User: What shape does this take?
Amino acid sequence: MTQSVSVANHRACTLEAMHACDDIIDVRTPAEYADDHIPGAINAPVLDDEERARIGYLYKQESAFRATRLGAALAARHIADHVEILFADKPRGWRPLIYCWRGGKRSAAMTDWFNLIGWRARQLEGGYKRWRHHVMAELQTRPAQFDFIVLAGPTGSGKTRLLHALERAGAQILDLEGIARHRGSLLGNLPGTPQPGQRGFETQLLQALQTLDPARPVFTEAESRRIGRLDLPTELLQALHAAHCIKVCASLSHRIGFLLQDYRHLFDAPDAFKATLQRLIGLHSRRTVEAWQRMIDEDRRAELFRELVEQHYDPAYQRSSHSHYVHLPQAESFDYDPTAADDTAQAQCLLERIGASA
Assistant: This one.
């Protein structure tokens, strides 16, 4: 059920024309859909993950005919269920766009059945692979269209909080860590929020870029090439490295106070927190790391964060790839209190200072 087949011209639809359809239907497996999909697409799999693996094995190891016959039978059952349940309320003139991995048999089967019913179904030429090529091509060219302003500063200076305050003040932002669902540091995992896959991350990144106005500046944070386990596109990273920068400065006491607020969830799972710190052995002595782990057991939170900032994060920041930000040495400094209850006024002050129109 994965081989590419030709699509009748009157039922084929290009990626550029897909917005004329009423709904987009992704007939791939739940795992394929979870990895990445066209934004707004409804998952209506014609095979589940186990069935697809079973048919693939049968096709390669035993008989292409038997695999195709089994795939057809399974697909027909799933399509019948979708017609009776998922799409039971769709009117006669409904115009769905249907895609699978590469515009093959899975999407062709559903397209044919939907048109037999009387709906005006179309099949996406090239399937998901065509969408994926579109995303990669856009991410190669679109970042160069923007005038980025990069917020740089050490851990605890509240760059993400300032970024959101700038958005409330009316500025455009690109929240890379929000899209990646990770704070970009050793302790950056968000509780209960797994990171997307690389392909899903890139699709969401393109969506975010498409909402931005190239005629206005875009604020974002200085990032390394990787945010958690995700890679930033090379062209976007190059645009950020060449951008104007703002040095976000916060006092040590404000930084510790901010970390106590923003990372308090780490103490809800002390064993996991200690296991994370264990990964620092090699960068720091075992004795030092064990001392930090005891601070977790003894609930010495402020002392722990102070030592992590002074002994780990600040030295790492000085060694970091932020040296690639060519305008950082000449960047204007901005004093910021990340613990303030309402920091919108601080963001407005920054906008006024640099003459950035919101």
Notes: The domain at 146-354 is CATH 3.40.50 (Rossmann fold). The chain is about 45% helix and 10% strand. Residues 144 and 192 are 34 Å apart (CA to CA).
